[in-house]
Amino acid sequence: MKGIILKNERLNDKYRLMEIESPEFVKDAKPGQFVMVKTGLQDYLADPLLRRPFGVVDVRGNTFRLLYMLVGKGTRLMTESLAGSAIEFSSSLGNGFKSVKGKNVALVAGGVGIAPLLWIAKLLKDDGCTVSLYFGGRNQEDIVLADEFRPHIDNLIITTDDGSIGEKALVTAPFGRDVKSFDRVYACGPKRMLQAVSEICVSSDVPVDVSLDERMACGMGACLGCIIYVREGEGTVQKRCCVEGPVFDGSKVVWDSVCRVG
Amino acid sequence: MSGLKVNICGVEFKNPVITASGTFGYGLEYARFTDISRLGGISVKGISYNEVQGNLMPRIMETTSGMLNAIGLQNVGVHRFLKEKLPLLRKYDTRIIVNFWGKSIEEYVQVAEILDNADIDMLEMNISCPNVKEGGIAFGSDPAMTSKVVDQCRKVIKNKPLLVKLSPNVTDIKPFAKACEDNGADGISAINTLLGMAVNINTKKPYISNVTGGLSGPAIKPVAVRMVHEVSKVVKIPIVGMGGIIKWEDAAEFFLVGASAVQVGTANFVDPEIPIKIIDGLEKYVSEQKLSNISELTGKVDLSK
Description:
The complex is a heterodimer of chains A (262) and B (305).
Chain A: E1 2-10, E2 15-21, H1 23-26, E3 34-37, E4 52-60, E5 63-69, H2 73-79, E6 86-88, E7 104-110, H3 117-126, E8 130-137, H4 146-149, E9 155-160, E10 167-168, H5 172-178, E11 184-188, H6 191-203, E12 208-211, E13 227-232, E14 235-240, E15 247-249
Parallel strand pairs in A: 7-8, 7-11, 8-9, 9-10, 11-12
Antiparallel strand pairs in A: 1-2, 1-6, 2-5, 3-4, 4-5, 12-15, 13-14
Chain B: E1 6-8, E2 11-13, E3 17-19, E4 41-47, E5 60-63, E6 66-69, H1 77-89, E7 95-100, H2 105-116, E8 122-126, H3 137-140, H4 143-156, E9 162-165, H5 174-182, E10 187-190, E11 194-197, E12 199-200, E13 205-206, E14 212-216, H6 221-234, E15 239-242, H7 248-256, E16 261-264, H8 267-270, H9 274-288
Parallel strand pairs in B: 3-4, 3-16, 4-7, 7-8, 8-9, 9-10, 10-15, 15-16
Antiparallel strand pairs in B: 1-2, 5-6, 6-14, 11-14, 12-13
Helix pairs in contact in B: 2-4, 4-5, 5-6, 7-9
C-alpha cells in the first residue's frame, strides 16, 4: 500500500510521530495491529532491506498515525521523509486488541510501547469502561502522547527511572499496588516489563493481554523469524508473533522464548 | 505473455519466475497480499518426513543489503503438508514445486517417494541448508554424498522431475552440479544461502542463536551469478538461478549466465509484489529486445574481450 505523509513531527530527540493519509488502509485497520513500513524512499535502496514493524497509534478520518523511536538506520531514514511525499507500507497486520464493555481496565505502557494503546483506550472509554493508564519510562523524554490520552482515561499514573516526571519507580510498582481493582489489563513495552506485569496479573487472577514486538522479516507469517512459545494444555506451541500475535494472553507466554528485550 | 512461457524439465511454466523455498511459506500465507496465480511457480518451505520445530530464537538478523537466517527448516511434515496445505494451494493457477530434505538418505528417499505420488509439479531436493546439523548441508558439501542421495532418490522418483538445490558454501560448485546430472537430476537450482555470522558488540553475543546463519538478499547476488555461470559451463540440464534477485534486471542477469528460470527469495519479505513486478519487467525486456521467448536469453552472456 501507498500513503501520503501529512506530518512527520519531532516530539523530542528520541521520538517522532508520523501521520499518513491512506483511505485504503484505514477502512480495515483495528486497534493493536501493526504495519511494516518501507523506511527508505528510493526503490533502489537495498539497505535497509527489510520493512520495519510499527504499531498503529490511531486512525482519524482518512489518516493513521505511527509513533517511532529513533533506534537505527531505518528509523533515521524515516525522519528524512517530508510531508507530501509517498510512503510504502503493508496492509494492517496482526490480531490486535479486543475491547470490553463496562469494565475497570488498566493500560500499562513502557516507553514506545505507548503507541498501540491510544486507540484501544478510546474504544474502551466508548464502551463504558473506567480506564487507568500506567505509563513508565527512563525519563521525561519517554513520556510522549500522555496528553492525548487524557480525554479517554480516568487515571494517569506516570513513573520514570530517574524521577524526572511522575513517581521515581518502575511502572510495575504502582500498577502492582492497584492490580486487584482491575477486571482486565492491556500492556505493551519492553519484555521484562511485560513479563513482570503478566506475573502480577496472574498472581491476582486478572486477565492480561500483552502486545509483543519481535524482530520480523516479513510480517506476513512466512519467514518464521518471530516465533513465540505459548503454553497450551500440558505443553507449549509455537506461534508467529506477526500473524497469531502481536497480542497474546500474558499468562500463557513462555517468556524465555521472547527475544526482543527493548 | 507467451514470450515468458518456459519449459523446465518437461514442465511448462507460464513464466519463469518462481518464489523460493523458505521465503514464501506454503504459498497460502501470501494469498492475501499478492495474486499468487500470476506466479510461474511456488517452491514451498522445505518439507521433511516428520514435523520439525526449527531452531531457537533469535533466528533472523538484517545485515547490509541482506539478512541472516537460521530458521532450522521448521515445517509441518510431509503428511500434514499434503493434507492441510496442498489442496488449498492447488486452487491457484501456478506450478507447485516441493522442496524436501531429510536427516538421512533413508528420510530423503521416504519423503521423495511420497511426494512423487502427490499432486505436485516438481520436486526440489534441498542438500544445502546451512542451518541444520544433519541433513541438508551434510549431503551438499561432499560430491560423493551428493551422488549417493541423488541416485537413491532418483530410483524412487518415477513420475516427477527432480531439481537439486546446491550450496554455495563449497570451494568449487562444479563437481556438485556434475554429480547431480550424472545421477539423474533433471535440473539444478542454485544457490542456497551463504554461511554468515553477525555479533552484537554490546552483548558480545551472536545475533542468531544458532551462531551462524544463511546470508541472503541483494548482498549475495554477484556470488550467485558467478556460481550459476560456473554450473552452466559443466551441465546440460536446466538451471533455476537465484540469489539476491529483487528486480527484473537482476533476473535478466541470471538468464544471461545460463539460467532457464529464476527464483525470488528474500525480496518476498520486503514486498510480496516484487515477483509480479519482475514478471512485468521481463516481459517488457523480452519485447524490447525483440526476442520471441525469454529462453533465447539463456547463456547469452558475451564473454568476448
